[in-house]
Design brief:
Blueprint: E1 2-5, H1 11-24, E2 29-30, H2 32-35, H3 42-51, E3 56-61, H4 63-66, H5 69-83, E4 88-94, E5 114-116, H6 123-139, H7 146-149, H8 155-166, H9 172-189, H10 196-210, H11 217-246
Parallel strand pairs: 1-2, 1-3, 3-4, 4-5
Helix pairs in contact: 6-11, 8-9, 9-11, 10-11
Length: 247
């Protein structure tokens, strides 16, 4: 789950668009506009159940946030968890430059951040967040590369991956087609069911590709990591199936 902290004044300009993209990618988002109700205990609801139970926390840092006591308290709570290694924190500076952060907020500049304006939109910064989440998932996989996992799958998938690996790097269209073929094989032929975020990411990027919308390297990397995660799930299901058969 992801938590988003912000000033209510920034809700419609940046927060709602980011929520739209994150949910389109299939990720659960704790968003107090939807998750808190009149008379709720704010500390328990937003701090403990929201920030405290989220591995990834996004904060929209703006001048509006600095004028909101509630948002400042949430940011301090997140800072404490971040400094203890309890969460991954994404500072998004909205209509604000890092050079404007002083005093007690200087610590934010120690984290890789992104500066967003009304003209820059929210898709790119959302993709950066998704890339980090998938990167962490890939680091925890048993097989962390296509070349490594190709030794543990049937000949058809192995051939797809080996062809993929020899293609020229900028040839995104052909690379996506090969990886998508592997995904279709797993879902249609082998009837593997994947988590919502895997299905939605693949569907979203395939839609972009089908409409001949030029993909940037970031979007392609997201697609690539998602397929790698799917392949690991598939290989794990084969191992589980074999164990069940033996017993």
């Amino acid at each position: 789950m992801l938590f988003i902290g912000y000033s209510s004044k920034d809700r419609y300009d940046i927060v709602e668009p980011m929520i739209f993209h994150l949910k389109n990618y299939g990720f659960d988002v704790w968003y107090d506009f939807h998750d808190m109700y009149l008379s709720d205990n704010r500390i328990e609801t937003n701090f403990i159940n929201g920030i405290g139970k989220s591995k990834y926390v996004i904060f929209i840092i703006s001048n509006n946030l600095f004028s909101s006591q509630c948002a400042i308290e949430e940011l301090k709570y997140a800072q404490n968890l971040y400094e203890k290694g309890g969460i991954t924190l994404f500072p998004i500076l909205y209509l604000l430059r890092a050079s404007e952060l002083t005093g007690e907020y200087n610590w934010i500049k120690k984290i890789i951040y992104n500066e967003v304006t009304k003209n820059s939109g929210t898709l790119f910064v959302t993709n950066q967040i998704i890339e980090k989440i998938l990167h962490d998932k890939c680091n925890a996989l048993k097989y962390r590369s296509f070349s490594e996992i190709s030794n543990h799958i049937e000949p058809y998938l192995k051939e797809l991956l080996e062809t993929y690996l020899i293609l020229d790097s900028p040839n995104y269209s052909a690379k996506i087609a090969l990886l998508y073929s592997a995904y279709l094989y797993m879902t249609i032929e082998k009837q593997v069911r994947f988590e919502t975020y895997i299905v939605k990411i693949i569907k979203k990027i395939i839609t972009f590709s089908s409409l001949n919308i030029t993909l940037d390297h970031l979007s392609f990397h997201i697609f690539e990591m998602t397929i790698l995660i799917a392949l690991n799930i598939y290989v794990n299901s084969l191992s589980t199936e074999q164990l069940s058969t033996r017993h």
